[in-house]
Amino acid sequence: MNFKNISQRSWWEREVMSHPRDLIIVGSGITGLSTALYYKKQNPEKSVMVLDRGFWPTGATGRNAGFACFGSAGELLDDLKHEDEAGVKDRLRLRLEGLELLKSELGENEIGFEMTGGYEIFDSKEDPHFLESAENLPRFSKWVEDITGVANSYEVRDINGFVSIFNGLEGYIHSGKMLRRLTQKVMDAGVEIRWNSPVENVEANRVVLSDGLELLAGAVMTAVNGYSSHLLGETLVKPARGYVMVSNPLKKMPWKGTCHYNMGYVYFRDLGDRLLIGGARDVDKAGEESTENEINPKIKQWLIDFVNDKLGIDPDWRIEQEWTGVMGFGATKTPEMKRLSNGVYTAAGLGGMGVAIGMKVGERMAGMIGQE
Ligand SMILES: Cc1cc2nc3c(=O)[nH]c(=O)nc-3n(C[C@H](O)[C@H](O)[C@H](O)COP(=O)(O)OP(=O)(O)OC[C@H]3O[C@@H](n4cnc5c(N)ncnc54)[C@H](O)[C@@H]3O)c2cc1C
Q1: Gap between the Cα atoms of 292 and 334, Å rounded
Q2: Which of 147, 300, 337, 366 is most buried as measured by Cβ atoms within 10 A of its Cβ?
Q3: Rounded to whole angstroms, how far apart are CA atoms 50 and 29?
Q4: Does the fold of domain 74-92+115-169+238-329 match that of domain 20-63+176-236+332-368?
Q5: Is the confidence at residue 1, as pLDDT, over 60?
Q6: Is the pLDDT of residue 227 over 70?
Q7: How confident is the model at residue 143 (pLDDT cuts 50, 70, 90)?
Q8: Residue pLDDT, tens place only, 63-112
Q9: Which among 345, 340, 347 is positioned nearest to 370, based on CA atoms?
């Protein structure tokens, strides 16, 4: 069958299947699905289709660490070295409001949300990064209070022999449950989702699948994050691979909550009686600029040594599951949300904080599409 030739479609296919949609979104991660949800809510009469190359979403949304976090003190301090205060505060607001939206829209139980609190650990009380972060806690707590109304969210605490900055407002989710719930909501809202549909080319009003099938649309948006350059040919966002491993069930699991180390490059949490740990991308940043889901042995070994040297778990622990996922990083830590020169809308570059900001990004994109 020649998919490319629309004149060879049946009357019935043209009427019901291949008619132009008002909006086609490529990518069914948190960004694409949230955009679809809010666009459909705002425009119930419009037809919306989401396409994804995988049998299920195969990007970072289903392969992350499940941290519902909004910025450790050390990370905020580091951001202030590269950006002005207004930019850092804006992103903090985006993250905090995004997390609220995620919980209220999808339901805390349904996404496995637990408000555990989180720790940013440091090697010693003399660590200059700790000292500077600790000095700034009243300032950062005030920023959080201005947005949430909750005072004193950051405080210095000792944990398992480490000095840490505790953040009472952090927690974690079950990313699989979150994705399942969001997908169901989007379908209930009347959005069509097609999996196993790799897209090869996008234009303002047309999408071409890898098998040649052409679909027409009033507007097209890409939400493929780390895979953006494959599809758009633009270097708006660079891919950045992330690694995660999960241990066997442990006799002793002394860590509870979301934990960060080295300005957020390393992150770990409990998964019941198991340890989940990931990150350390800074060990080989250039090597991780890849969309291939392969494990970097240098990073894996660095994390194994970190667990053995620092975390105080059973010495005979072992890795039971490990995986990688692909993030996207833009020129700044704030995602790209715009209409490109070819008329295609895009949202990409959610970095390592898509759980927090993904729904808010989707809400903003839904308001932007068709308004220009
Ligand atoms: C290892 C790891 C750990 C992380 N941990 C956290 C965390 O704890 N907390 C946090 O907030 N964030 C975390 N993140 C980041 C977060 O997961 C991402 O920012 C977020 O999921 C991005 O969502 P997205 O919808 O924009 O992109 P994605 O989820 O990557 O979705 C893109 C979709 O596009 C599809 N696609 C790609 N190309 C095509 C094509 N040509 N045709 C059709 N479909 C296509 C893919 O299959 C995919 O489903 C982590 C990321 C990784 C990789």
Answers
A1: 24
A2: 366
A3: 10
A4: no
A5: no
A6: yes
A7: very high
A8: 999 999 988 999 999 899 989 999 999 999 999 999 999 999 999 999 99
A9: 345
Q: Ligand 1, closest atom to CA 32?
A: 25
Query: Helix count (H) and strand count (E) of the chain?
Result: 10, 18
Q: What percentage of the chain exceeds 70 in pLDDT?
A: 98
* Ligand 1 pocket at CB < 6 A: 26-32, 51-54, 57-61, 63-67, 198-199, 223-227, 231, 242, 244, 278, 325-327, 350-356, 358
Q: From ligand 1's centre to the CA of 266, what distance in Å?
A: 18
Averaged pLDDT for residues 117-135: 95
Give residue 60 CA to ligand 1 midpoint distance, Å. 3
Burial annotation 243-263 (CB, 10 A radius, 16+ → b, else e): bbbbbeebeebebebbbbbbb
Which amino acid residue places its CA nearest to atom 10 of ligand 1? 353
CA 217 to centroid of ligand 1, rounded, Å: 24
User: Tell me, what's the pLDDT at 5?
Assistant: 56
The pLDDT value given to residue 16: 83
Could you report the per-residue pLDDT of 93-107, keeping only the tens digit for each?
A: 999 999 999 999 999
Calculate the CA 341 to chain-centre distance: 25
Q: Which residue's alpha carbon is nearest to atom 3 within ligand 1?
A: 64
Query: Would you kindly state where each structural domain of the chain is located, as residue ranges?
Result: 20-63+176-236+332-368, 74-92+115-169+238-329
Give residue 189 CA to ligand 1 midpoint distance, Å: 22
The per-residue pLDDT for range 8-26, each reduced to its tens digit, is 778 888 888 888 999 999 9
298 C-beta neighbours (distance < 10 Å), count: 12
Domain formed by 74-92+115-169+238-329, architecture: 2-Layer Sandwich (3.30)
Residue in 35, 53, 182 to alter for ligand 1 test, most ligand atoms within 8 A of Cβ: 53
To test the pocket of ligand 1, the residue of 173, 209, 215, 224 to mutate (highest count of ligand atoms within 8 Å of its CB) is 224
Measured in Å, residue 158 CA sits from the centre of ligand 1 at: 34
CATH superfamily of 20-63+176-236+332-368: FAD/NAD(P)-binding domain (3.50.50.60)
Closest protein CA for atom 48 of ligand 1 = 59
